[in-house]
Design a protein that fits this description.
Strand content: 15-25%
Strand order of the largest sheet: 1-7-6-4-5
Structural class: alpha/beta
Number of domains: 2
Helix content: 25-40%
Distance between the termini: 21 Å
Pfam family, one: ACP_syn_III
Organism: Clostridium ganghwense
Pathway: Lipid metabolism; fatty acid biosynthesis
Oligomer: single chain
Radius of gyration: 19 Å
Subunit structure: Homodimer.
Bound molecules: acetyl coenzyme *A
CATH architecture of the largest domain: 3-Layer(aba) Sandwich
Keywords: Acyltransferase, Cytoplasm, Fatty acid biosynthesis, Fatty acid metabolism, Lipid biosynthesis, Lipid metabolism, Multifunctional enzyme, Transferase
CATH class of the largest domain: Alpha Beta
Number of helices: 9
């Protein structure tokens, strides 16, 4: 088995900034309510760039930072709930845009845990020798599927993409992975796909591709599962929480992260947060945060970090990583 490390990251978000006050223009809410309940102050909302465009821009920066030629990428995994098309996969569109002609490309669906799942899949491909250099992207244009009349949800989400290049290595970069799913909670966060309408299916069903959420249930789930993920990913390793420099959580809500920090008795400053500026970008949230940390020079060679996420499905997972750049 080979070892796997991250050798570069990149991120991109649309330039259009939408503040809480902007949203209060069309739904009954306020900057105070949104800030107090979620920590979100503003988010980026795409006017004309779809998921493949955001992804390609993030991926180009990751390739540049990793000093990798697109032709050397042999695997592209895009984690998204908001693809450009059902067919082709958005990963194939990104491949064409990058000129990554030697890659096998596919999309995965794990909502906000998508990047964690994607890194896990790429790690397995590389460990077994199937792949040498992989591009993993988490990206969303959630604004396409948000119900802009629903104040319970439209305040939460933003658009953006983050990417990482993973490579075969002699050094252990991905130390351990923990993932899971709980389909019994699927109804708490939903966006229907195309309904079953055909010549034989009877009365035509309406096509409503918008997000609905039971916020309280997701809140309960998140505060239960995040501490478990952190515990599990450290289990059977030589590390404990004191060895971890940063935890990079899914950026959904400051209150969720505060709750987790308190429950595990971890200094809140160990949790990197940028959700005040991006909102919840679902699959994009963890890799955007990770890239921002790299750009700020917060990560040094040898640092141990944990990525931890939860999302629709329900899905959850964590990765313990030694930074090797
Ligand atoms: N502005 C003003 N009032 C609002 C708004 C709003 N934007 N949204 C809801 N309210 C009202 C509700 O209507 C309700 O009013 P009522 O008491 O008269 O019925 C009141 O505020 C309280 O509503 P709750 O839903 O109980 O508010 P809560 O404190 O739970 O906060 C929130 C809601 C922020 C969604 C919270 O439940 C939460 O963070 N849940 C986690 C969900 C999450 O982060 N999802 C992200 C996507 S999922 C993912 O990333 C996997």
């Amino acid at each position: 088995m080979y070892e796997v490390k991250i050798i570069g990251t990149g991120s991109y978000a649309p330039s259009n900034v939408v503040t809480n006050d902007d949203i209060a223009q069309f739904v009954d809410t306020s900057d105070k309510w949104i800030s107090d309940r979620t920590g979100i102050k503003e988010r980026r909302i795409s006017k004309d760039e779809d998921t493949s465009v955001l992804s390609t821009k993030a991926a180009k920066l990751a390739l540049e930072n990793a000093n990798v030629n697109p032709k050397d990428i042999d695997l592209i995994i895009l984690a998204t709930a908001t693809p450009d098309y059902f067919i082709p996969s958005t990963a194939c569109i990104i491949q064409e845009e990058l000129g990554a002609v030697n890659a096998t490309c596919f999309d995965i669906s794990a909502a906000c845990t998508g990047f964690i799942y994607g890194v896990n899949i790429a790690t397995q491909f590389i460990k077994t020798g199937q792949s040498k250099t992989a591009l993993v992207i988490g990206a969303e244009v959630l604004s396409k599927i948000v119900d802009w009349d629903d104040r319970n949800t439209c305040i939460l989400f933003g658009d953006g993409a983050g990417a990482a290049i993973l490579q075969r290595s002699d050094e252990k970069g991905i130390i351990s992975v923990y993932t899971g799913s709980d389909g019994s909670g699927g109804e708490h966060l939903e966006c229907p796909a195309v309904p079953l309408n055909n010549k034989f299916s009877g009365e035509e069903k309406s096509n409503d591709n918008i997000v609905s959420m039971n916020g309280r249930e997701i809140f309960k789930f998140a505060t239960k599962i995040m501490p478990k993920c952190i515990d599990e990913v450290l289990k059977n390793t030589e590390y404990n929480l004191e060895d971890i420099k940063y935890i990079v959580p899914h950026q959904a809500n400051t209150r969720i992260i505060e709750y987790v920090a308190k429950k595990l008795n971890i200094d809140l400053n160990k949790f990197y947060m940028n959700l005040d500026r991006y909102g919840n970008t679902s699959g994009g949230s963890i890799p955007i945060a990770l890239d921002e940390m790299v750009q700020k020079g917060l990560l040094n060679k040898g640092d141990k970090i944990i990525l931890v996420g939860f999302g629709g499905g329900l899905t959850f997972g964590a990765e313990l990583i030694e930074w090797r750049i």
